[in-house]
Amino acid sequence: MNERAAPTEDTQNDAKHDPISADPDHARAGTADARMNDAADGKLASVLVIGEALVDLLPGDAHAPEGRALPGGSPMNVAVGLARLGHRSQLAARLADDELGGLVIAHLAESGVELVDGALDGQRTSTARATLDENSSASYEFDLDFSLPTPDLTGIDVLHTGSIGAVVDPGGAVVRAVFAEARNRGGILTSYDPNVRAAIMGEREAVVGRVEALVALSHVVKLSDEDAAWLYPQLSPSEVLLRFTELGARLALMTRGRDGALARTAERAFAVPAPSVRVVDTVGAGDAFMSGLLHAVSTPSIRRALLGGDAGSTADGSTLDGSAFDDSWVDAALATAARSAAITVARAGANPPWPEELGTA
To answer: Which residues of the chain form beta strands (DSSP E)?
Structure first.
């Protein structure tokens, strides 16, 4: 569903906190070559994101009366966010060699995202026409190419998917096969954000089945409260997160707009408040939360903790080798994710933070 802003609206940051910049002319992170070297050295993760990349067609405003065409798509936004934070980030999406495809390619190159082989074989570049309501929340009409390339998992530390491409075939079938391969290989942290688009995903029962199949293949799952309300209208937020951990997720999270975010492992529940920030728009807010979260959990030690249950776990949440699941890092990871979303909603469009802004440089 539409991702609402994690931060509260129409308030300023407390003077005790670092200001969240709304200036898009911020410092750039290192080069793609540097990220590749760091990933090879084990300093940062090598991440593969599979799913749609498209162009958001935004309505006019005071700065651009005729509207704007901006690269977007939930998986692409996550790939960009992770590349900006210094990871080697590859995107398995379908684009065309056309004018709109050129916009996306240039945007990816600016942040250091690499496209996998076969990404440019599309007939047209997908679009999402956005409208903003009185609260600056975005809704979309889509014109999509639903196909996806099949990526190589060699050397990948983290695999992420989400939204339309993860559910709607033929791309959805590719995603499910790639996630199954990743889990069979072992050693790859898998992540999923349902990011429901009810108008084009199909009937609820079928969508729930496909969502739950991917939840079962994912170590980390994040959804919004609006996603949860559409998927499981009969369940409370805590019941939804519990269901996801019972399906196999090691960490399940729910963003709740101005009410912050909830999370749970098999052992316990967590909550983080929303940072206070003046909201410009909410485009890309949930994706920035996701990239900030994956950045926080991609360290080797946390990846090992999240991967530890691949061999199975007992009823009390300990792994079969007898070691307890260490979730002492969850609060800090939630705070990083919430700040990433707050920075993004404080400026126009899907514009996730760089390390200097997030405080991880």
So the answer is: 46-50, 54-58, 68-72, 88-92, 114-115, 127-132, 138-143, 158-162, 189-193, 220-224, 251-255, 261-264, 269-272
Placement of tokens 């942040």 in the chain: 111
Sheet containing 46-50: order of strands: 114-115, 88-92, 46-50, 158-162, 189-193, 220-224, 251-255, 261-264, 269-272
The per-residue b/e assignment along 201-215, b for 16 or more CB within 10 angstroms, e otherwise, is: beeeeebeebbbbbb
DSSP E strand boundaries for 9-66: 46-50, 54-58
- Spatial distance between the Cα atoms of 32 and 44, rounded to a whole number of angstroms: 12
Question: Among candidates 194, 185, 245, which has minimal Cα distance to 216?
Answer: 245
Instruction: Please say whether the beta carbons of 266 and 306 come within 8 A.
Output: no
* Contact in structure between 11 and 277 (CB atoms under 8 Å): yes
Judge whether 44 and 134 are in contact, CB under 8 Å: no
- Strands 158-162 and 138-143 turn out to be unpaired
E-strand ranges in 210-312 read: 220-224, 251-255, 261-264, 269-272
Question: Could you give the C-alpha distances from 1 to 66, 137, 156, 172, 247, in angstroms and in order?
Answer: 26, 11, 29, 18, 21
Q: For residue 90, with 0-12 CB atoms within 10 Å meaning exposed, 13-18 middle and 19 or more buried, which class applies?
A: buried
Cα–Cα–Cα angle for 68, 72, 77, nearest 5°? Answer: 140
Average pLDDT for runs of 10 along the chain of length 361: 42 34 41 48 83 87 76 94 97 95 96 96 90 76 92 97 96 98 97 94 96 98 97 98 97 95 95 91 90 96 85 40 69 95 89 89 56
Question: How many residues in the chain?
Answer: 361
